Amino acid sequence: MSEGGIFETLEVFVYQVLTNTICNALCFLYPAYASYKAIKSNGTADDKQWLTYWVTFGLLHVMEFWFGPVLEYIPLYWLLKSGFVLWLQHPSTKGATTLYYKYVQPFLKNNEARIDQELSQSGRYAATGVAMAANRLSQALGKEQKQKLAETLVTAAINSQVEDSKTK
Q1: Is CB count within 10 Å lower at the N or C end of the chain?
Q2: What is the CA radius of gyration of the chain?
Q3: Are 48 and 71 in contact (CB under 8 A)?
Q4: Concatenated DSSP letters for 102-126?
Q5: 27-62 pLDDT tens trace
Q6: Cβ distance 138 to 147 under 8 Å?
Q7: pLDDT in tens, 71-102
Q8: Is 127 in a helix, a strand, or coil?
Q9: Residues 88, 99: contact at Cβ < 8 Å?
Q10: How far is CA 163 from the centre of its chain?
């Protein structure tokens, strides 16, 4: 690879890291702080704005996960996403509210019973999986190992309580 090729590759890498970092700050840090401020405020309008943002952004984030390999090939993707996220957040555009009421809420309302059923069923599967894993762990450990694990867990719990009482 020529020296120019190395610098071009480095420049693209730095640009991608920088735009990705800025985009993630716009997507997560500012909304998290704005949500904190909304929770502290007496009114509920800002709470609703930020809840609709998080629901809409969460769905966008899931879609981005699924289509990530394709999205990487879109030139200036992080810049475009940053602009879109600003549109979602900005009080004058309230893009998240627009998308929520036009697309997200109707979809969720039409599929609410099925989604609730799937979530309930997945919760049962998760509980069964945890119980099976605990049972296998219990079978795999010898008596001394079980005793040591129990002592470690109790010590950690006690230390956690002590630290909690110190911070209060």
Answers
A1: C
A2: 24
A3: no
A4: IIIHHHHHHHHHHHHHHHHHHHHHH
A5: 899 999 999 999 999 999 899 999 999 999 999 999
A6: no
A7: 878 888 888 888 999 999 998 999 999 999 99
A8: helix
A9: yes
A10: 28
